[in-house]
Design goal:
alpha/beta, CBS-domain, elongated, binds zinc ion
């Protein structure tokens, strides 16, 4: 059985294509334990697979003690997968990157790192730490087998391979499979990190992602020829993950170190908490703004979204004050803070806009729509800068 375990640093800039299946996967999980400061979750389908393994061997072999052995083996395999994930998570912790949680799925494990460090050397260490755990386990099992004298694997022994021998073989399988350069699997991350030491990180990611997509097509073909549905699922996740991460890295690089002030709307309307809802409705009709900061005595006291305005108009009528419709739990951003740090905050808040303040005064509003326009503009600018220098040099000198 293949074990797929990889880290999906869940950037808020990751396109919905990968974020939605991940959110769905995480939803159908329950918490098993908390170990070394990280919550471990188990997906419900994992239990189904466990029951399937037990019943299949029980019915197939008519030997329920043997079935118990198979279940124990399956659990040991996933203990190895879990330790592999802790390898990634604890290596990431060394570089100050927290892990949100680890989830065990039928296709393997997922460690959700808050982010992946920009330093390729650190990414390399984090990526390799997982398979390295399996190397240590395999070496331990190998040494144990040698100590007990069960060396020299003959064909006979392999057919009736012992528990420890099978576990050793499966750990070797985990190492080999995960080191395939199918980004964003471990081997693909190692490849990206090594490439990023010699070239621009966006280009390194694009190359790794392209190889990852080609490999995922290979996995899909292998899934059909060997009728292995798990390999098919892995193919889909590698494909989506490769595309998603490439897009996220491009967006991050387009953001650069731009502050919030560069992407915010500076021409905007505000409403007061005592204003009637009809005032906000008029502003919405006369302009293109659909969500408003609510300001009283120069301070932001709330946010009035389009949805809340409509709901309150239907409920309380147009003469009701804005304060009855506004949200009072909202995020404010500082004009000088980095856009890269601010966007995930805005996205996670669920609010359509965040007021931007400088020295306590509202100087702008940031919306996700605006931010994505800014990213597109930055990309267009970057493309323009990419004009080959030889052409510029070939232009006739400007005579002043
Ligand atoms: Zn891994």
């Amino acid at each position: 059985m293949e074990g797929f375990h990889d880290d999906w640093p869940e950037s808020q800039l990751t396109p919905p294509a990968i974020r939605l299946p991940l959110a769905w996967l995480m939803k159908w999980s329950f918490k098993l334990m908390r170990l070394w400061g990280i919550d471990v979750y188990i997906h419900y389908t994992f239990l189904l697979l466990l029951a399937f393994v037990g019943f299949r061997s029980g019915i197939h072999k008519g030997n329920w003690a043997g079935a118990l052995g198979d279940v124990a083996f399956f659990l040991s395999l996933f203990a190895c997968v879990l330790l592999h994930e802790y390898g990634h998570a604890l290596a990431a912790r060394r570089y100050g990157v927290p892990t949100r949680d680890i989830t065990l799925l039928p296709i393997g494990g997922v460690a959700r790192l808050e982010r992946m460090p920009d330093n390729p050397r650190q990414e390399l260490v984090i990526a390799i730490a997982g398979p390295l755990v399996n190397v240590v386990i395999a070496a331990g099992l190998g040494a144990g087998l040698m100590f007990t004298g069960a060396t020299g694997l003959t064909l006979d022994q392999l057919a009736g391979a012992s528990f420890m021998q099978s576990l050793l073989a499966i750990n070797v399988g985990l190492i080999l499979f995960n080191m395939l350069p199918a980004f964003p699997m471990d081997g693909g991350r190692v490849l990206r990190a090594v490439l990023a030491m010699f070239m621009d990180p966006v280009r390194a990611t694009n190359i790794a992602a392209t190889i990852g997509k080609i490999m995922s097509v290979g996995f899909l073909v292998a899934a059909f020829t060997t009728s292995n549905p798990i390999l098919g699922l892995i193919a889909v996740f590698v494909w989506l993950g490769a595309g998603g991460e490439a897009a996220a890295v491009q967006a991050r690089s387009a953001l650069g170190d731009a502050p919030v002030a560069r992407a915010m709307l500076t021409e905007f309307q505000v409403v007061a908490p005592t204003d009637p809802l009809s005032r906000a409705a008029e502003l919405m009709i006369s302009g293109s703004q659909t969500d408003f900061p609510v300001v009283a005595e120069g301070r932001v006291v709330g946010v009035l979204s389009r949805a809340d305005l409509f709901a309150a108009l239907a409920r309380a009528g147009e003469f009701a004050p804005v304060e009855q419709a506004m949200k009072t739990d909202f995020v404010t951003l500082q004009a000088a803070e980095s856009l890269e740090a601010a966007l995930p905050v805005l996205s996670a808040s669920g609010s359509p806009l965040a007021p931007v303040v400088a020295q306590g005064r509202v100087v702008g509003i940031l919306t996700l729509e605006n931010a994505s326009e800014f990213i597109s503009l930055q990309r267009a600018r970057a493309a323009n800068r990419r004009v080959p220098p030889t052409i510029a040099a070939a232009a006739p000198p400007v005579i002043r």
